[in-house]
Design a protein that fits this description.
The chain is α+β, with helices and mostly antiparallel strands. The chain has four domains: 6-103, Helix Hairpins (Orthogonal Bundle); 115-157 and 201-255, Urease metallochaperone UreE, N-terminal domain (HSP40/DNAj peptide-binding domain); 260-331, HSP40/DNAj peptide-binding domain (Sandwich), CATH 2.60.260.20; 338-377, no CATH class. Helix content is 29%, strand content 26%. It contains ten helices and 17 strands. The protein has a four-stranded mixed β-sheet. It has a three-stranded mixed β-sheet with strand order 3-11-10. The protein has a two-stranded antiparallel ribbon with strand order 1-2. Strand 6 (172-177) and strand 7 (180-185) form a beta hairpin. Helix 2 runs antiparallel to helix 3. The protein is elongated, with a radius of gyration of 38 Å. The chain starts with 5 loop residues before the first helix and ends with a helix.
């Protein structure tokens, strides 16, 4: 027997929206549901047909394949076959997705499994030198670990969990909702199918307990603010044998007294006296590898940048080392004696009318200010 067109099955147009498709399926499912039509093989078949159509048309990838190639495009994804459920999305998944908002959950008959442990986050503050060169630090992390008294089972040593008396071990209970009979997670055992009648005294039946773990963290060279180091399996323990979560160590870097970092480059300010700035000179500047000599050419202005190549940071993800950028700051002398002040006045007088050639920026700035006010008064 030829299969009917899925759009025809649901009674929607080929350009129907996802909401229209869901609404059409809900209407047909309620009409032909086997619980509402007992002993009606025709209704059951229509229900399966509508469910298969919804499975395909509610999935963007499957719908696209169906629109292009028809049933042949989705044959390998059949979720219903021979009256049973195999491959693809099961009926309980589809029915729960559509009617979960009515019945408070999917109609799944599977027992709940253990849950993976939660991931944890730890803020690690480093000195700049530690971040640049790498280091190994020991940290203490409060977390949940598997109870060593009961092995994570939650029952007192020597005892075992017993079958839940509410769901008889199925993990599900059947609830009557009007014309429908649906399954829900057992409220007593929460889907486990078993109960702990004699809980472990150390973890009170939780299977996990709080503990502060001491861990060694290897920080690779070149890490920067915001980088994360993942320690697999060092998060909270899972439940019922599920794997533990991970621990993410997030790096922050303390402010340095000399250097600031921008990516792979380091920056620092180097104060110089105005005599060295005017006549030139040579001075020692610090780097993370030790002192180096920096030559200051004559007539150096405040704020000028000098680049020391390769004296920056080698990035953690690889690549060449950055540079150290030294910004010179000309320092005005303070606490001058009377004689020193007189010498400066004599120096100023010696410049005479040629002063503009010695301070070109100063004179060009004042020329611009004079022109500005002249234009305002015109």
């Amino acid at each position: 027997m030829a299969k009917r067109d899925y759009y025809e099955v649901l009674g929607v147009a080929r350009d129907a929206s996802d909401q229209e498709i869901k609404k059409a399926y809900r209407r047909l499912a309620m009409k032909h549901h086997p619980d509402r039509n007992p002993d009606d093989a025709g209704a059951e078949q229509k229900f399966k047909e509508a469910s298969r159509a919804f499975e395909v048309l509610s999935d963007a990838e499957k719908r696209s394949a169906y629109d292009q190639f028809g049933h042949a495009g989705v044959e390998g994804n059949a979720g219903f076959g021979g009256g049973g459920f195999d491959g693809g999305a099961s009926f309980s998944d589809i029915f729960g997705d559509v009617f979960g908002d009515i019945f408070g959950g999917a109609a799944s008959g599977r027992r709940s499994r253990g849950q993976r442990g939660a991931d944890l986050k730890y803020m690690l503050e480093l000195d700049l030198e530690e971040a640049v060169r790498g280091t190994t630090v020991r940290i203490q992390v409060p977390t949940l670990v598997e109870c060593d008294e009961c092995g994570g089972g939650g029952a007192r040593k020597g005892s075992s969990p017993v079958t839940c008396t509410t769901c008889a071990g199925s993990g599900q209970v059947r609830m009557q909702q009007g014309i429908f009979s649906v399954q829900q997670t057992c409220p007593r055992c929460r889907g486990a199918g078993q109960m702990i009648s004699d809980p472990c005294p150390r973890c009170q039946g939780a299977g996990r307990r709080e503990e502060t773990k001491t861990l060694s963290v290897k920080v690779p060279p070149g890490v920067d603010v915001g980088d994360r180091i993942r320690l697999a399996g060092e998060g909270e323990a899972g439940t019922k044998g599920a794997p533990a979560g991970d621990l993410y160590v997030q790096v922050s870097v303390r402010e340095h007294s000399i250097f600031t970092r921008e990516g792979r480059n380091l920056y620092c300010e180097v104060p110089i006296c105005f005599v060295d700035a005017a006549l030139g000179g040579e001075l020692e500047v610090p780097t993370l590898d030790g002192r180096v000599s920096l030559k200051i050419p004559p007539e150096t202005q405040s704020g000028r940048l000098f680049r020391l190549r390769g004296k920056g940071v080698t990035p953690v993800r690889g690549g060449p080392a950055g540079d150290l950028m030294c910004r010179v700051v000309v320092e005005t002398p303070v606490n001058l004696t009377k004689t020193q002040k007189e010498l400066l006045r004599q120096f100023q007088d010696s410049l005479g009318e040629a002063g503009h050639s010695h301070s070109p920026k100063k004179h060009s700035w004042f020329d611009g200010v004079k022109k500005f006010f002249d234009e305002m008064t015109q």
